[in-house]
Amino acid sequence: MVKIAVAGGSGQVAQEVIDALVAAKKHEITILSRNASAGNSTPGVTSRAVNYDDKSELVEALQGIHTVLSFIQLLSDPENKSQKNLIDAAIIAGVKRFAPSEWGSAETKDMPWWVGKGKIREYLKKVNQNGKVLEYCLFQPGLFLDYLAFPYRTAKHVAPLNTMFDYQNRRAIVVDGHDFIMTFTTAQDIAAVVAGAVDYDGEWPVIGGIRGNRVTVSQILKIGEKVRGRPFAIDAVKLEDLEAGNLKTSWTLETRHSSVAEDQAAIFLKSVLIGTLLSGAKGAWAVSDELNRILPDYKFTQIEDFLAKVWEEKP
After folding, report:
1. Where are the beta strands (DSSP E) in 223-312?
2. What's the CA gap between 205 and 190, in Å, rounded?
3. 12, CA 20 to 30 Å: which among 31, 100, 160, 312?
């Protein structure tokens, strides 16, 4: 049993992980939030409101904590001050393990909405440059497999979002000449692996790849055509157009994340689509498998089984 602090605990991914940790019935969990509700009815879970601008308050909140899992929303922390303060406080408080707010791709180049991840990676390297003072792991599960079920919800907390693979309307956007690899992992599997990593007695790897499914774009389309009953309409975009910020497609993303303001949604969604395609062509979504090797007995949800079940008898 260890004491775990979950920063940004009201977020969707955080709640999936909290549920898995609670189900394990092994740990004491403190949810840190800017607007924590008074009390928590779940046994073994407490909520605490914190000011991420007040480092001394964070140090106090982290007293006795073994592991910090951060899900701080990057869009609300553009200068990365909250996470840097959290890291500093964790070191002062004697926290053993820290997981920054990653939960996505291996690389972040060409994804401006995730620029903070790169800066926090560098910050964590710097704090250990003269000797390890904080064990940390970058949890990287690729893209949520649940998103290929859009508009249907398959996770308890992670809301449906559409992607360049639109199974509902049997269409997709691909990069011409680039059949790149992507990693898809269900929200449930991600949460279970994080819970397993918390229990792991060895040292956490710095890169924590979680490889639920490793598939090429063409394989994703082939599975889609199989479970949806007919070929997909394909929009193929040029890499050089994406590099120039041009999106020449017949459709685009429509569903914004709750962290994105409605008046910024159209510009943001265009950026996300361009960035996901561009980074994918450069290998950003082909994540590694460090945590698969640490937890060799864990059985991941397989993409074809998952999608066949989701789309069975759907119009």
Report:
1. 233-237
2. 16
3. 312
